[in-house]
Design brief:
Chains: A mainly alpha (374), B alpha/beta (328), C alpha/beta (344)
Largest interface: B-C, 45 and 42 residues
Number of strands of chain A: 3
CATH superfamily of the largest domain in chain C: P-loop containing nucleotide triphosphate hydrolases
Oligomer: heterotrimer
Strand content of chain A: 5-15%
Number of domains of chain C: 2
CATH class of the largest domain in chain A: Mainly Alpha
Order of helices and strands of chain C: EEEHEEHEHHHHEHEHEEHHEEHEE
CATH topology of the largest domain in chain C: Rossmann fold
Shape of chain A: elongated
CATH superfamily of the largest domain in chain A: MetI-like
Largest sheet of chain A: 3 strands, antiparallel
Largest sheet of chain C: 8 strands, mixed
CATH topology of the largest domain in chain A: MetI-like fold
CATH architecture of the largest domain in chain C: 3-Layer(aba) Sandwich
CATH architecture of the largest domain in chain A: Orthogonal Bundle
Helix content of chain C: 25-40%
Helix content of chain A: 55-70%
Radius of gyration of chain A: 27 Å
Strand content of chain C: 15-25%
Distance between the termini of chain A: 44 Å
Radius of gyration of chain C: 21 Å
C-alpha cells in the first residue's frame, strides 16, 4: 500500500490551471475573431499610412494631366499577347476621344507589357518627414505606364497614393483627438465624481449643455472660427482640439459614474483610513481600476473623431490643401456626375468605412477582454 | 422504500478558459420522501453545483454532467434535455428551489403577486383570478401579514426576510415533492434565520415534502436536517445523521469543522484546520483533504473509497479501511 | 475616565442625508452612543443588519464625520477629540487607529501587488527608507502566516483567508494602538475563520492592541471579547462584560438574540425561540424605546419615553437601556427564564 504514495495519480490532461489576469484577458481577446482581424487591419492601415512614401507608388501631387479621371489600371498575370508570368504586369493607358460621345475614353496600349517590380527606386520622399529615401513598395519601371490600383483624379494623380497620404491626417486625427479627450474626460470625470458638490453640479450642467446641441452644426461653428489664414499644420491642430473638446463629455460622465462606485469600495476606505491624500487615492486606487474602461471608451471614441474630421473636411471646413485627408479626397466626389462617371472616386469612403468598423469591432473585443471573469 | 431522489456517481465538470474544473466528482446520495437532507461544505465544495445539476441549470456550454445518474421518481434527470418540456415540468414543478439572495432572484419590475401567479400558471391551468387567490393564500401561509396588499407590492418594498418568504411561496406554488434550499439563511440576520428555518420545517411536515438544505453552517443542519452529507472539493466526505455528526463525526474533515466552530460558552482556544481550501488549480491527487489532515498517511495519496461504518454512516477516509487500521 | 482609557465616546450621533434646517430629517444611523474603551481590551459591538454597528466603527475611524458627540482618543501626544479634529491632526492620529474590513476581496486593490498594499500606510506617512519598508512588510507577512514571497503576488492569486491576513498585515504596518475590526471573519470559510480569530488574539497579546470588534455572530463575539455592546437601530441596548452578558442578560433584546442563536444544549440542538417581526427602518423622529414594537414586555411607558442607558441594579457594571430591566429576570444564556408573563 505504501507505493501508492510514491506514485501519485498523474493529474489528467486539460486540468484546471491558474492563469494570470493578463493571460485570461489575452485568451478572451483572441477568442473574438472579429476583433483580432480588426486589430490586424488597423495595424496594416496605420503602417501603410505612416510609411506612405514607401507604400505609395507615386507622390501625392504627382499628376499626369492626360490621365485626368483615368480608371484603375488592370493588373494582369496572364494574357494572350505577353503570355503568363508570375510577375504581374500592366499596359500603358492612352486617352482617345470617343467619336460617338466626344468624351475621353481610356484604352490599354497592348503593344508592350510593363512589369510591376517590388522594392523599386523611384521618386524621392522623406520617411515620416525626416529621413530621405527613394525606395517604393511596388511600381513599374516606365513612368508612362503607371500602375494605379484605384484610378486617377481630375488632375491625373494616383488616387491610391493620395489615399495613403491622406490617411496620415485622417488616422492621426483620431489618435490625437482621443488622447486629448481622454485626459480631459478622465481628469474632469474623476474630480467631479470624487468631490461632488458644486464642482460636480457645474461640470454636469456644462456637459448637458454641450450635449444638447447637435454635433455637426457645433463642429461646423467651431471650425469656422479657425482663422482661414492659419498654416495647414495649425488648422490640423485646431481641428483636433475642436473634435476633442466636443468628445470628452461622454467619457467624463462614464468616469464620474465609475468614480462614484469605486470611492465607496472598501479598498478606497482602507486607504482613507490610513490617511492617504486625495491625490494618492486618485492616482493609486481610482485611475488604475478605471484604466481598462477608459481604454475601451477611448477605442470607441476614435472612429467618432475620424468621422468628425472626415465630415468637416468633406464640407470644406476641415483640413485644407495641400494637406489632404480622406474626407477632403471624398469631397472631389461631391457631384453626382463624378460618382456616375468615375465611381472609383468613392474609394476614400471605403477606407473610412473599414477603419470605423475595425475600431468598433476592436472596441467590442477589448470590452470583453477587460472583464475576463465574466 | 424507493427514495424520491437517488444520485449515483454524479460528476459535473466545468469547461472553462483555464481548463477543466471538476466541480462535482463521483457524488452519490439519496433523499427519501419526507426527509430533510443537509448538504454541508465550504466554498468550492460543489454543493451548489450539485443542486444546479439536479435542476439542470448549469451554465450552457460551460457546465456539463460528465457521468452518473440523477433518478427523480425513477426518471433519470441527467439524461433529459435541459430545455425540454419534461425537464421544465420537473424544474419549478416537482422540484422547487430557493436561493441565497432573494433580491436577485425576484424581478424588480413585477409585483410579488404577479411573479407568484406566473409561477403558478406555468405549471397549472388555473385562471389568472384563481392563481391570484392561490398566491395570496401562499403568502399568508409563509407568514406574510396582509397578503392581499403585499401581493400588489414590488420586491423593494419587502425586507430581506419577507423576500425570502415570498421566494418560498413561489417555490411552493406548484406543490413540489422536493424543495432545494441553497443557503436560504446566509443573507439574513440570526433572528430572521430562525424564523425561516422554522417555516421550512413546518411546511415540510405539512406537505410531506422532501427538502435538500444546502448550507455552510453545521448548526443549521443540526437543527433541521434528518441526515446530511459533508462535501469537500467536489467529493462527499461523509454521510451521516444529524444526531450523530456532533457527537461522533467520522471523517477528520467533519471533526475539524466542528472544532473550529466558535460557539457560545466555548472559551478554549479554537483548533482550526491548518491551511486553506485549495484553489481549483492546486487540487491534490488522492484524498482532497489529505494536505490539511492531521491524520494523513502515505495511502492518502490515492482517492479513498467510501467505507460503511454503520447503517447510516459512511466516510471516504482510509482510516476506516481494515488493512490500514490493522497496520496502524 | 480612568488612566488606562484609550477612547471615550460620548453622545455620538450620526444622521445620514440630514437637511441642515429640518430637525429630525434624514436617517438616524447612530443614536447617542456612549462608551469607554480601555487600553488592551476587546469591545465587541453586536447587532443585526441596520443596527449601525459598522457605522460606529467608521465614525471612530473618521470615515464618516459624526453629526454630534465627542470621541476623545488618548493619542501618544495627548488627548484629541476625533469628532472635531482638523485634516492635519486627523492624518497624524490615523497612524494610531487602523481598520480591518469584512470582505477581503473588496478591501484589497486588485491592481496592486501584496507588497505595495501592505507598504502603503508606511508610504503615506513617510516612514522608513525603501529598504526598511520592504523589510518591515516581509517580516509582517511572515508574522501573519504568509510567506514573504507573497509580496509579488496579486490579491486574486490568494485564497480568502490569505487575503484577510494581508488585510491584517496592512492594518498593522504602522503599529497602530487601536484596531477596528468590521466583521473580519464573516466572509471567510468556517475552517479558516478560526485561524484568523486565533491570529487576532495572538497579535493583541503580542502588540498590546485594543480592538473594537464589530460582529453579528454571538459565538465569535463570545470567543474574542472582554466586553460587549448590544446595538439595536443605532441605539445601545446593553453594555456588559462578556461573562455578565451571557450569564445574566439584562435587556429583552439581548435575551432575544441569545434565543435566536443556534446552540446545542445537552447533546441536542435546542429549539430556537423566534422573535416576532423584523428590525424596522431607522426613522428620523421617533418616540419611546426603539425595541418596543417587538418586545414581549413592552408597556405604555416604553412607547412614549426613550429609556436611558443606566447601571443595572443587579449587576451595576452592566449598563442597560430598559424601563423594566430591574424588574425582569431573563435567566442566563443556557437557562432561559420561565415563559414570559405580562408584568405585574
Amino acid at each position: 500500500m505504501a507505493d501508492a504514495a510514491t506514485n501519485p495519480a498523474p493529474a489528467a490532461k486539460g486540468d484546471y490551471r491558474l492563469l494570470s489576469v493578463r493571460q485570461l484577458m489575452w485568451r478572451k481577446f483572441l477568442n473574438n475573431r472579429l476583433a483580432v482581424i480588426s486589430a490586424l487591419v488597423l495595424i496594416v492601415l496605420y503602417l501603410a499610412t505612416i510609411f506612405a512614401g514607401f507604400t505609395a507608388p507615386y507622390g501625392p501631387q504627382d499628376g499626369v494631366s492626360r490621365l485626368s479621371f483615368a480608371p484603375p489600371t488592370r493588373v494582369r498575370f496572364c494574357d494572350e499577347n505577353a503570355g503568363c508570368s508570375l510577375r504581374p504586369f500592366v499596359y500603358a493607358t492612352t486617352a482617345e476621344r470617343s467619336k460617338k460621345t466626344f468624351l475621353l475614353e481610356f484604352v490599354e496600349d497592348r503593344s508592350e507589357p510593363h512589369y510591376i517590380y517590388f522594392f523599386e527606386r523611384g521618386a524621392p520622399y522623406k520617411i515620416v518627414g525626416l529621413i530621405p529615401w527613394d525606395m517604393h513598395l511596388f511600381k513599374t519601371r516606365n513612368d508612362d505606364a503607371r500602375v494605379s490600383l484605384l484610378g486617377h483624379d481630375q488632375r491625373g494623380r494616383d488616387l491610391f497614393s493620395r489615399i495613403l497620404y491622406g490617411g496620415q491626417v485622417s488616422l492621426s486625427v483620431g489618435l490625437m483627438g482621443v488622447l486629448i479627450l481622454v485626459i480631459l474626460g478622465s481628469v474632469i470625470g474623476t474630480l467631479s465624481g470624487y468631490y461632488g458638490g458644486w464642482f460636480d453640479a457645474v461640470t454636469q450642467r456644462f456637459i448637458e449643455t454641450l450635449r444638447v446641441f447637435p454635433e455637426i452644426p457645433l463642429w461646423m461653428a467651431l471650425s469656422a472660427a479657425i482663422p482661414p489664414l492659419w498654416p495647414p499644420e495649425w488648422v490640423y491642430a485646431g481641428i483636433v482640439v475642436v473634435l476633442a473638446f466636443l468628445g470628452w463629455t461622454g467619457l467624463a460622465r462614464e468616469v464620474r459614474g465609475l468614480t462614484l462606485s469605486l470611492k465607496k469600495r472598501d479598498f478606497v476606505l482602507a486607504a482613507q483610513a490610513s490617511g492617504a491624500s486625495t491625490g494618492r487615492i486618485v492616482r493609486k486606487h481610482l485611475i488604475p481600476n478605471m484604466m481598462s474602461h477608459i481604454i475601451v471608451t477611448a477605442t470607441l471614441a476614435i472612429p467618432v473623431t475620424i468621422l468628425g474630421e472626415s465630415a468637416l473636411s468633406f464640407l470644406g471646413i476641415g483640413v485644407r490643401p495641400p494637406m489632404m485627408s480622406w474626407g477632403l479626397l471624398l469631397s472631389d466626389a461631391f457631384k453626382v456626375q463624378v460618382i456616375a462617371l468615375y465611381p472609383w472616386m468613392l474609394a476614400p469612403a471605403g477606407f473610412i468605412l473599414i477603419t470605423v468598423l475595425a475600431f468598433n469591432f476592436l472596441g467590442d473585443g477589448l470590452r470583453d477582454m477587460v472583464d475576463p471573469f465574466s | 422504500m424507493k427514495p424520491l431522489l437517488e444520485i449515483n456517481n454524479l460528476s459535473t465538470h466545468y469547461h472553462l478558459e483555464q481548463g477543466l474544473l471538476r466541480a462535482v466528482e463521483n457524488v452519490s446520495f439519496q433523499i427519501a420522501k419526507g426527509e430533510t437532507l443537509g448538504v454541508v461544505g465550504e466554498s468550492g465544495c460543489g454543493k451548489s453545483v450539485t443542486a444546479r445539476s439536479i435542476m439542470r441549470l448549469l451554465p450552457p456550454r460551460i457546465g456539463r454532467i460528465a457521468e452518473g445518474e440523477i433518478l427523480f421518481n425513477g426518471v433519470d434527470v441527467a439524461r433529459l434535455d435541459p430545455r425540454g418540456t419534461e425537464m421544465r415540468d420537473i424544474r419549478g414543478g416537482q422540484i422547487g428551489m430557493i436561493f441565497q439572495e432573494p433580491m436577485t432572484s425576484l424581478n424588480p419590475v413585477h409585483t410579488i403577486g404577479a411573479q407568484i401567479v406566473e409561477a403558478i400558471r406555468t405549471h397549472s391551468d388555473l385562471s389568472k383570478a384563481e392563481a391570484m387567490e392561490k398566491a395570496v393564500m401562499l403568502l399568508d401561509r409563509v407568514g406574510i401579514n396582509q397578503p392581499e396588499q403585499r401581493a400588489r407590492q414590488y420586491p423593494h418594498a419587502f425586507s430581506g426576510g419577507m423576500r425570502q418568504r415570498a421566494m418560498i411561496a413561489m417555490a411552493l406554488s406548484s406543490d413540489p415533492a422536493l424543495l432545494i434550499a441553497d443557503e436560504p439563511t446566509t443573507a439574513v440576520d440570526v433572528t430572521v434565520e430562525a424564523q425561516i428555518l422554522d417555516l421550512i420545517a413546518e411546511l415540510k411536515a405539512e406537505r410531506d415534502m422532501s427538502v435538500m438544505l444546502i448550507t455552510h453552517d453545521l448548526n443549521v443542519v443540526g437543527e433541521v436536517a434528518d441526515r446530511l452529507i459533508v462535501m469537500y472539493l467536489g467529493r462527499v466526505m461523509e454521510t451521516t445523521t444529524a444526531a450523530k455528526v456532533f457527537d461522533a463525526p467520522a471523517h477528520p474533515y467533519t471533526k475539524g469543522l466542528l472544532e473550529s466552530l466558535p460557539a457560545i460558552g466555548r472559551r478554549s482556544r479554537l483548533k482550526p484546520i491548518k491551511g486553506s481550501v485549495p484553489g481549483p488549480h492546486e487540487r491534490p491527487p488522492g484524498c482532497p483533504f489529505a494536505p490539511r489532515c492531521d491524520k494523513a498517511m502515505a495511502i492518502c495519496q490515492t482517492q479513498p473509497p467510501t467505507f460503511r461504518i454503520d447503517d447510516d454512516t459512511s466516510a471516504a477516509c482510509w482510516l476506516y479501511d481494515d488493512e490500514v487500521r490493522h497496520d496502524g | 475616565m480612568t488612566d488606562d482609557t484609550i477612547l471615550s465616546v460620548a453622545d455620538l450621533s450620526l444622521r445620514f442625508g440630514a437637511k441642515p434646517k429640518v430637525k429630525g430629517s434624514g436617517l438616524l444611523a447612530v443614536n447617542k452612543v456612549s462608551f469607554d474603551l480601555k487600553q488592551g481590551e476587546t469591545l465587541s459591538i453586536v447587532g443585526e443588519s441596520g443596527s449601525g454597528k459598522t457605522t460606529i466603527g467608521r465614525c471612530i475611524a473618521r470615515l464618516y464625520a459624526p453629526s454630534q458627540g465627542s470621541m476623545v482618543f488618548q493619542a501618544k501626544d495627548g488627548p484629541v477629540d476625533l469628532a472635531t479634529l482638523d485634516k492635519a491632526g486627523l492624518r497624524k492620529v490615523r497612524r494610531e487607529i487602523q481598520m480591518l474590513f469584512q470582505d477581503p476581496n473588496a478591501s484589497l486593490n486588485s491592481r496592486m501587488r501584496i507588497g505595495e498594499i501592505v507598504a502603503e500606510p508606511l508610504e503615506i506617512h513617510g516612514i522608513g527608507t525603501k529598504a526598511e519598508r520592504i523589510e518591515r512588510v516581509r517580516s509582517l507577512l511572515e508574522r501573519v502566516g504568509l510567506s514573504a514571497d507573497a509580496v509579488n503576488r496579486y490579491p486574486h492569486q490568494l485564497s480568502g483567508g490569505q487575503r484577510q491576513r494581508v488585510g491584517i498585515a496592512r492594518a498593522l504596518t504602522i503599529s497602530p494602538r487601536l484596531l477596528i475590526c468590521d466583521e473580519p471573519v464573516s466572509a471567510l470559510d468556517v475552517s479558516v475563520q478560526a485561524q484568523v480569530l486565533n491570529l487576532l488574539g495572538d497579535l493583541q497579546k503580542e502588540m498590546g492592541l485594543t480592538y473594537i470588534f464589530v460582529s453579528h455572530d454571538l459565538g465569535v463575539v463570545d470567543y474574542i471579547s472582554d466586553r460587549i455592546m448590544v446595538l439595536y437601530l443605532g441605539t445601545v441596548m446593553e453594555l456588559a462584560t462578556r461573562d455578565d452578558l451571557f450569564a445574566a442578560p439584562a435587556h429583552p433584546y439581548t435575551r432575544a438574540l441569545l434565543d435566536a442563536m443556534p446552540a446545542r444544549v445537552g447533546g441536542k440542538h435546542r429549539k430556537r425561540k423566534v422573535l416576532s417581526g423584523e428590525i424596522g427602518g431607522p426613522s428620523g423622529l421617533r418616540k419611546g424605546c426603539v425595541f418596543a414594537g417587538r418586545c414581549p414586555f413592552a408597556t405604555d411607558i416604553c412607547r412614549t419615553h426613550e429609556p436611558e442607558l443606566r447601571p443595572w441594579r443587579r449587576r451595576p457594571e452592566t449598563r442597560v437601556a430598559c424601563h423594566h430591566a430591574d424588574d425582569l429576570d431573563l435567566g442566563s444564556y443556557d437557562q432561559p427564564p420561565p415563559e414570559p408573563e405580562s408584568l405585574p
